[in-house]
Structures are given as C-alpha cells and as structure tokens.
C-alpha cells in the first residue's frame, strides 16, 4: 500500500466517522404547534361563507350544503387531483430529452504505456491523451416505442379514474341532498312545535299535580283519578318521544350546511305541506332509470375498462422494447481531434421474465374482471331492492300521513264539541284539558308524518340516481343564485332538485 493511499485513508476516516454519528430520532409534535394548528382549523372550518341573514328555504339549505359541505369539498379536490394526474400522464408519452454536463479533475496526469507481446519489449514511454481537468456536455433525445404504448394505456386509465372521481362526487351530491331534505323537514317541525311541546309537557305536569290533589281530597273516585293520571303520563311520554325525535334535526341540518354549531338560524316555510304530486312511472321504468343513472354501476363500468386496459398493458410488456436515440456531444479534452460530434442509434431490449409472468398476470386480470362483473350483478339486485324499499316506505308514510291528517281533523272536531259541552257544564275541565293535550300531540304527529313523506320522496330520488349535474364552477355563484338554479329547471341547464317519482304504477 503506497504512502499516498495511506494518507488519503487517514484523511477520509474522520469524515466517515462524522457521517456515522448523524443518526435521527423521532421528534413528537410540539404542544405549541398542536395548539396553533387547532386554532387555525377552527378559524378555517367555516371561513369564507356567506352569513345567514334570513330564514332558510329547502333549496337554499341544499345550495349551502353543496357549496360549503366539507365532505363535498373533499370529493371536489379528489376530482381536481385526478384531472391533474391525467394532464401529467400526457407528458409520459413524449420522448425524453436529457441534458448532461460533467466536470472532474485529478491530482496528476492519467499516463500509461503499452507492452509489445511479440517482442516482449515496451513500445514507448509513458504518455497521456487526457487533460487533468475534464469538462463534457451532451444533449440526448431518446424515445422508447414500448414505453410510448404503455404510457398511452396508462393515460387512458388515468382518464377513467377522473370519471370515477366524478361519479364519487355525484354520489356525495345525492347523499347530501337526501340528508338535507330529511333534516330540513324535521328541523321545520321542531321549530314549529318544540316550544308548544314544552308548554304541553308543563301543562300536563301541572294537571298531574292537580289530579294528585283531587285524589288526596277524595273529590273523585280512585279509579277515575288513576285513569286520568295514566292518560296524562301517556301524553308526557309521547311529547318526550316527539321532542327527542326532533331535537337533533336542526343540529344535523347545520352540520350538513357547514354552519358552526350553536349558530342561530330560522327555517322558512315551516308550515305543513301536502304530499308531492304523483308521476306515473312503472316499476320497470324506475329500474331502467336507476340502472342508467346510479354512480355505483358507472364506477364498476369504469373499473372494468381500466382492467381491460391492464390486459393490454400486460401484452405490451411482453414485447421487446426498441429505443431510438440521437444526441449532440461536446468534450473539452484538448487532446481530441473532434471535440464536438453527433451520435445516434437504436437499441433493443427484452425482459424475458415478463413472458413467464404473463400467465399469472392474465389470471389476476381475469379474476378481477369476474369480481367486477359479480359486483355489478350484486349492485343491480341492491338497487332493485332499494327502489322497492323506498317505494314501499313512501307508500306507507303517505298512508300514515293521511291517517294522521284524518286523526287531527277528528281530534279538532272533538275538542270543539267538548269545549262547547264544558261551557255548558256537561263535562269536567280535566276531560277537556286531556283532549286539548291530545290535539297538540296529534298536530305534532301530523307534522312528523309529512316530514317522513318528504324524506321518503327524497330517498326515491336517491335510489333512482337523480341529482343536478353540477359543474364545480356553479358552486362559485352566490347561495341564492345556486338555490334558484336548483329550484327551477332551465333548458339545457340545471335540473330541478326533485323529480316527482311517487304514487307509482306497479306492473
């Protein structure tokens, strides 16, 4: 070992030792960072939203949910990401153009001699053909035919992923619309009835106290007092159930619209509405419409196209790759006769292992296609069942709403007649009070029944895959304009939020 080499080793040893000492240890998040991050998220979660300055209608609630709901925004950004990836995939089909430059130097000359094997003598003394400092540049254009074919296939797959993301966004829109519609009508009922239900419960509890006092004074028979007390407790239990059912509706609606919890707002049109008009759609027409519109089936179709392209990619990868290249080169070596030159040529390569891998890959692709085909069949049955269930729910809720309206009308007549009899001292005030309480409960149940009908109609829309074809640019318009576009159909523009598919004809 030469002394110069030994000195080089001694100089490099401390440097290597210092590198070996550069070890990393995990660093937990700083408490200050976590606190500031939490404050930032709280300030941003409802930022840049139009304030609520008036009572919110159904279509404005849907518009706010589509515009500000964070789940919908996630799907928007997912779609935007897929579009960017598609644009990036276009560049993979282009030839590669690589510019290179290099510099190196050495501490002495690269000198050598040659030995004549015939004469067994040295031909000449030591000589060099290279400068101590080297500087070279090159620009190489290359194109791999096989890579171009594979890039084209991957670009088509990226395009299908964009469409899958679009279907995911459409599904979120349908779910948001259904959830908003259900929460809106329940919140409207809660706004209209909650204060009255509280007063009803208070009146009932006071009546219970009065009944206990009357029973203690033995002013009535124990059986009559117990019966009246039981009826009052039944009223209290019913009002508690109704208030519990309606209590969280406004909170859910605020969350769907991305309104900060606790923000006060009013519901417009909180009165009772009649059932929507019927549309004569047969069950076969409903199923055909759903199979054409549902995002889940389109998702499977796009994934099957991606899988078919994967089969083409597997075939392409078995082929030999041909690379064409051409370039210009420059070398600053002063000993060269030609320091600038052009180079061009072709090179073929073949990964033989891909040939042996193809049967296994073909099996995976075929199994994936069978899985997707079976998933499409399962989705078809699930969609048919969902249509059947949503139609049955609408039919039953419509019947319940009709019964609730008849019950309310009958109870109203009863209270009117009992009020007249009580004024004539034909019945006790407790009897009239009990029926007045029952009237308020009947009114609350009628409102909830109508809310259930509206929610069931929205569920039918969702089962059919009906949703407005929202362009992301439409969400940049003001809330009122978006709500107007959702409410009224324009030729070639937005569709109405609700296409009435109810009171259907069964074939």
Description:
It is a single chain. This protein has twelve helices and eight strands. The chain is elongated and about 145 Å long. Helix 3 packs across helix 5 (145-216). With 507 residues, it is of the alpha+beta class. Helix content is 64%, strand content 10%. Residues 270-278 and 489-507 have low confidence and may be disordered.
Give me the secondary-structure category: alpha+beta
Q: What is the terminal separation in angstroms?
A: 98 Å
Largest sheet strand order? 1-6-7-8
CA-based gyration radius: 39 Å
Order of helices and strands: HHHHEEEEEEHHHHHEEHHH
Proportion of strand residues: 5-15%
What's the tally of helices?
Answer: 12
| Dominant shape | elongated
Tally of strands:
8
Note the main sheet. Answer: 4 strands, antiparallel
Quaternary status: single chain
Proportion of residues in helical segments: 55-70%
Uncertain segments are 270-278, 489-507
User: Would you tell me the overall average pLDDT?
Assistant: 80
Short key terms for the protein model shown above:
10% strand; 507 residues; 4-stranded antiparallel β-sheet; elongated; two-stranded antiparallel ribbon; alpha+beta
In short, what is this structure?
This protein is an alpha+beta fold and 507 residues long. 64% of the residues lie in helices and 10% in strands. The strands form 3 sheets. A 4-stranded antiparallel sheet has the order 1-6-7-8. Strands 2-5 form a two-stranded antiparallel ribbon. Strands 3-4 form a two-stranded antiparallel ribbon.
């Amino acid at each position: 070992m030469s002394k110069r080499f030994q000195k080089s080793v001694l100089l490099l040893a401390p440097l290597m030792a210092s590198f070996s000492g550069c070890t990393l240890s995990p660093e937990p998040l700083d408490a200050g960072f976590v606190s500031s991050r939490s404050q930032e998220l709280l300030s941003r979660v409802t930022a840049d939203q139009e304030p609520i300055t008036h009572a919110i209608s159904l279509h404005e609630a849907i518009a706010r949910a589509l515009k500000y709901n964070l789940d919908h925004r996630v799907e928007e950004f997912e779609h935007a990401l897929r579009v960017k990836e598609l644009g990036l995939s276009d560049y993979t089909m282009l030839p590669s153009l690589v510019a290179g430059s290099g510099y190196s130097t050495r501490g002495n000359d690269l000198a050598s001699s040659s030995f004549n094997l015939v004469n067994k003598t040295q031909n000449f003394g030591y000589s060099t053909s290279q400068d101590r400092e080297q500087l070279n540049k090159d620009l190489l254009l290359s194109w791999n035919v096989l890579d171009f074919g594979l890039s084209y296939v991957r670009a088509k797959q990226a395009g299908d992923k964009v469409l899958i993301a679009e279907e995911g966004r459409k599904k979120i829109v349908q779910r948001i619309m259904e959830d908003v519609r259900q929460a809106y009508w329940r919140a409207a009922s809660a706004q209209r009835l909650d204060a009255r239900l509280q007063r009803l419960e208070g009146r009932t509890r006071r009546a219970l106290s009065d009944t206990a006092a009357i029973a203690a004074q033995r002013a009535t028979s124990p059986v009559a007092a117990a019966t009246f007390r039981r009826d009052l407790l039944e009223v209290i239990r019913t009002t508690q159930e109704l208030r519990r059912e309606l209590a969280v509706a406004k909170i859910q609606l605020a969350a769907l619209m991305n309104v900060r919890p606790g923000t006060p707002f009013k519901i417009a049109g909180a009165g009772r509405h009649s059932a929507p008009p019927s549309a004569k759609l047969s069950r076969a027409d409903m199923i055909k419409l759903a199979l054409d519109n549902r995002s889940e089936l389109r998702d499977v179709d796009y994934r099957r196209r991606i899988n078919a392209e994967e089969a083409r990619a597997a075939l392409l990868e078995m082929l030999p790759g041909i690379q064409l290249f051409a370039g210009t080169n420059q070398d600053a070596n002063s000993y060269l006769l030609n320091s600038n030159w052009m180079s061009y040529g072709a090179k073929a390569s073949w990964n033989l292992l891909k040939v042996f891998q193809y049967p296994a890959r073909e099996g995976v692709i075929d199994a994936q296609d069978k899985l997707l085909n079976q998933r499409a069949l399962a989705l078809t049955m699930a969609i048919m069942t969902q249509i059947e269930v949503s139609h049955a729910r609408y039919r039953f809720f419509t019947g319940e709403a009709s019964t609730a309206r008849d019950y309310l009308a009958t109870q109203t007549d009863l209270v009117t007649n009992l009020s007249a009899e009580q004024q004539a001292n034909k019945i006790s005030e407790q009897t009239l009070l009990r029926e007045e309480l029952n009237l308020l409960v009947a009114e609350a149940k009628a409102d909830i029944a109508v809310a259930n009908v509206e929610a069931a109609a929205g569920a039918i829309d969702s089962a059919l895959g009906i949703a407005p074809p929202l362009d992301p640019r439409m969400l940049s318009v003001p809330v009122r304009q978006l709500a107007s576009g959702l409410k009224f159909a324009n030729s070639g523009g937005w569709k109405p939020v609700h296409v009435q598919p109810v009171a259907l004809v069964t074939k």
